Amino acid sequence: MAQNDDQLATVLSHEIAHALAHHASERIAREQMYQKAISVAGGTIGALDPHDREKLTGLLGAGASLRSLSFDRKQESEADHIGLFLMTFAGYDPDQALVFWERMQEISSRHGRPPEILSDHPSDARRIANIRSWIVFAKRAKQAYDQGRIAPSPSRGR
Q1: Which helix H or strand E contains 26, and what residues bound it?
Q2: Given this model, what pLDDT does residue 66 score?
Q3: Dihedral over Cα of 74, 78, 79, 84: its sign
Q4: Which one, of 78, 140, 93, lies nearest residue 150 by Cα?
Q5: pLDDT tens by residue, 32-63
Q6: Residue 1 DSSP one-character state
Q7: Active-site hit among 15, 31, 54, 106
Q8: What is the average per-residue pLDDT within 128-155?
Q9: pLDDT at 108
Q10: Is 15 known to be catalytic?
Q11: What span, in angstroms and rounded, lies between the C-alpha atoms of 146 and 121?
Q12: pLDDT tier at 29 (50, 70, 90 boundaries)?
């Protein structure tokens, strides 16, 4: 999919951003909380008749699944954002992230994708719009850094 080093940096910096933001740990913690909630609810709904208990458990599961997808989309957007800054500060062209995602949108449009609400990733159109808006900030931050206009905060030196 990546046609040059800058586009490859888009993908790699996105994946590195997931690790830096501890997204896997967040997903594990979320799953553990869901399991605890089901256990607690299981004790509470034990008095229901089996048919109603099954319906309620199904609704809880469906709600958790949709909530999980929303959470995962947020993590993906966060990884896009962090990744764009990582690649820019590493000397790669952030405009190529836009080119990469436009190409992904073109390819995925041929195969179809589920609506964003049913996906664990933002739509390609949303990603493109976000990246387009973030590029200017990534470039300005890198320029400020290169010019020595970014200094550590006073509390970091302690």
Answers
A1: helix 23-44
A2: 45
A3: positive
A4: 140
A5: 777 776 666 656 665 566 666 666 666 566 55
A6: -
A7: 15
A8: 90
A9: 81
A10: yes
A11: 33
A12: confident
Residue 100 pLDDT:
96
**Helix, strand, or coil (residue 90):** coil
Using alpha carbons, list the distances in angstroms from residue 21 to 14, 27, 34, 48, 81: 11, 11, 21, 41, 11
Q: Which amino acid is at 42?
A: G
Closest CA to 3 of 79, 142, 131, 97: 97
- Burial of 17 per CB tally in 10 Å (0-12, 13-18, 19+): buried
Please name the residue that has the structure tokens 């664990």.
120
Percent pLDDT > 90 in the chain is 45
Q: Rounded to whole angstroms, what are the CA distances from 156 to 24, 33, 40, 130, 152?
A: 27, 34, 43, 30, 6
Read off the pLDDT of each residue in 59-81 and give the average, rounded to a whole number: 70
Hey, what are 90's tokens?
């590493």
Tokens of 34: 């869901």
- Rounded Cα distance, 158 and 155, in Å: 6
Listed residue (148, 108, 143) closest to 126, CA to CA: 108
Question: Which amino acid would we find at residue 8?
Answer: L
